[in-house]
Design goal:
Blueprint: H1 3-8, E1 39-40, E2 45-46, H2 48-56, H3 60-70, H4 80-95, H5 102-109, E3 111-112, H6 126-129, H7 137-158, H8 160-181, E4 186-187, H9 191-207, H10 213-228, H11 235-254, H12 261-287
C-alpha cells in the first residue's frame, strides 16, 4: 500500500481525532482510537462512547464501588510492575537453560523444605527466590501468560505498590503452605503468586459487584488440575497462594480509602508476621526436629 492510499483510509486514524494516526481498536465497537481516547478495560481498551455505555449498564453497587476505588487507580494505568516481574522471571528462567550456570541457579534459588533440617543450612530467602525460577519453558510460559492476563486488570486498580505487595506476599504464602504441608519436597515457579492474584481478584471482584463467575471457574479448574497432577504440580503452593491472596484482597477491599492506608499496612504486616511464624514452627513439628 502506498503512503497516499494509507492516508486516504480513515480507518488508520482516530475516529474522534482525524489528524491522529493509530493502530489500536476499541475492543467493543472496533473503531480506531488514539492514546487520549483509550481507557483500559479487562481485555484491551475501549473508546469513550463504549465506556459511557458500559457505565450506564452498571448496577448501583458497581457504581458505588467504582467511585470508592477510583482514588486507588494509578494515574499511569500501564501495568509496568507486571511487565517488570515478567522480565525478571524470564531472564532468570532463560539463564537456567545455560549448562554452566543453569543448574547452580536452580539449586540455589528453588525452595527446598529439607533446608529446614538441622544438618542443612537455613536459607529462608528461598521462599521468595523460588518464584523466579521454573521447571521448564512450558512452566514459565503458562505462568507468565496468566500473570499478563490478570496483571493488566488488577495492577491499575490496586496501584503498583499494593500490587507488588500482593504478588510477593502471596508467593511467600504459597511457599509457607508447601513448608507446612509437605516440608520434604522442592518446588519452583511463580504459581503460588499467580494464584494469589486470582484469589485477590475473586474477592475484589465480588466486592465491586462484578461478575466473578469466570475467574471463579478458572481458579476452581486450576485447583482441580493441581490435585489431579499432584505428582508433578505443587498443589500446596497453589492453595496457599490463593488463600493468602484472597485474604489480602479482602484487606484491600475494606481499607481502600486514603485515611485507612496505615491500617492497611499494619494488616499486611500482620499477615506477613503470621506467615513467618507458621514457616518457623509448623515444618519443624511435621519433620519432628
Amino acid at each position: 500500500m502506498t503512503s497516499t492510499e494509507f492516508t486516504a483510509n480513515r480507518d488508520n486514524f482516530c475516529y474522534r481525532h482525524p489528524d491522529r494516526q493509530s493502530f489500536v481498536l476499541c475492543q467493543r465497537c472496533l473503531r480506531t482510537i488514539c492514546p487520549e481516547c483509550q481507557t483500559q478495560a479487562p481485555v484491551g481498551v475501549i473508546c469513550p462512547e463504549c465506556l459511557k455505555d458500559q457505565r450506564k449498564a452498571e448496577s448501583p453497587a458497581q457504581r458505588r464501588a467504582r467511585r470508592q476505588w477510583r482514588g486507588s487507580i494509578a494515574a499511569d494505568a500501564r501495568p509496568l510492575a507486571t511487565y517488570a516481574i515478567m522480565a525478571v522471571t524470564t531472564v532468570i528462567s532463560v539463564l537456567q537453560l545455560f549448562p554452566g550456570i543453569g543448574p547452580a541457579i536452580t539449586l540455589n534459588m528453588r525452595f527446598a523444605g529439607l533446608y529446614l533440617l538441622p544438618e542443612y543450612s537455613f536459607e529462608p530467602w528461598r521462599m521468595l527466590t523460588a518464584m523466579f525460577v521454573h521447571g521448564g519453558i512450558w512452566h514459565l510460559l503458562l505462568n507468565m501468560l496468566a500473570l499478563w492476563m490478570i496483571g493488566r486488570s488488577l495492577e491499575p486498580m490496586l496501584g503498583r505498590g499494593r500490587y507488588l505487595a500482593l504478588y510477593l506476599i502471596g508467593g511467600f504464602g504459597g511457599s509457607v503452605a508447601v513448608a507446612c504441608i509437605s516440608p520434604d519436597i522442592a518446588t519452583v515457579g511463580a504459581s503460588g503468586a499467580v494464584f494469589a492474584l486470582m484469589g485477590a481478584l475473586l474477592v475484589i471482584g465480588r466486592h465491586i459487584g462484578a461478575n466473578i463467575t469466570g475467574i471463579a471457574v478458572v481458579l476452581g479448574l486450576n485447583l482441580v488440575v493441581s490435585f489431579v497432577f499432584s505428582g508433578q504440580i505443587a498443589w500446596q503452593a497453589h492453595v496457599g497462594g490463593a488463600l493468602v491472596g484472597a485474604l489480602i484482597g479482602f484487606i484491600y477491599a475494606r481499607t481502600q480509602r486514603r485515611e485507612q492506608r496505615t491500617v492497611q499496612i499494619l494488616l499486611l504486616a500482620a499477615v506477613v508476621l503470621v506467615l513467618v511464624v507458621l514457616a518457623a514452627v509448623v515444618p519443624r513439628v511435621v519433620l519432628g526436629v
